[in-house]
Amino acid sequence: MFTSIAGRSVIVTGGSKGIGKGISRAFAARGARVLLTARTAEELEMAVAEMRATGGDAIGAVANVSSLPDMERVAQRALETHGGIDIVCVNAGIFPSARLEEMREEDWDEVHDTNLKGTFLTVRACLPALKQSAHGRVIVTSSITGPITGLPGWSHYAASKAGQLGFVRSAALELAKYGITCNAVLPGNIRTEGLEALGAEYTAKMIESVPLGRLGSVEDIANAALFLASDEAAFITGQTLVVDGGQVLPESLSAIASG
Ligand code: NAP
Description:
Helices cover 43% and strands 14% of the residues. It is an alpha/beta fold. It has a single domain (9-190, 218-242), classed as Rossmann fold (3-Layer(aba) Sandwich). The model has no long low-confidence stretch (mean pLDDT 97).
């Protein structure tokens, strides 16, 4: 099904770790030419080296998604090195927790600058090249948190992730005339460096709330991104794909145990 990915030029923001690294690896393994970005050069170089070691066509570009000049430089690099841009995986994101009573204005701004403004700036910078592609795709990593569920301590994050869906739906309409689709993947709790940093107690609680009884893997999300990038998904736009092991389904706290 995913053979149509080979040779496509893909940009993955936040590709040095976690879900973004999983997405980058999956595209590289299927013959795509992948440009991954992150702010930390060392981790980015390690991720690129890992993909090249298994025969993947991958390069890295240090860039902050909240900077338009950075993202324009990334788009230019993809044009020069890969001859264009076909698929943009808008994935970079942060999820520091802060209760409303303690949340500072700068906490709110940092989350929104990365998760929501970063979404806009990534698409904005890549759009001129994306318009030239015959297979243009924008795939946003949103979350179940915000669009579907709430989580105390993450109101700024939840707002940014719900905001991404408003962006996706309106952008899908604007981009349709260029044949570019724009969709979002909504991960549940996925085992990544970022999630592990929230601690073992958080992880254990989350596993209890997943009907399929485990955290998601980065491959679970990468498979959804591969599908949305494929020719087979060419008629799907402005949509959301929840990948969460059923976490949003239970109607009551006891619904999983009694299932
Ligand atoms: P992660 O393990 O912490 O990795 C985050 C990646 O984003 C890193 O490569 C990081 O590199 C990069 N990044 C962060 N801020 C950036 C910025 N301003 N500019 C450029 N790159 C930046 O996170 P993850 O768990 O894989 O999450 C990835 C995405 O999935 C996020 O959008 C998150 O909201 C979403 N998500 C995750 C989960 C989950 O359970 N893990 C669930 C739902 C949604 P640098 O720090 O070096 O820049």
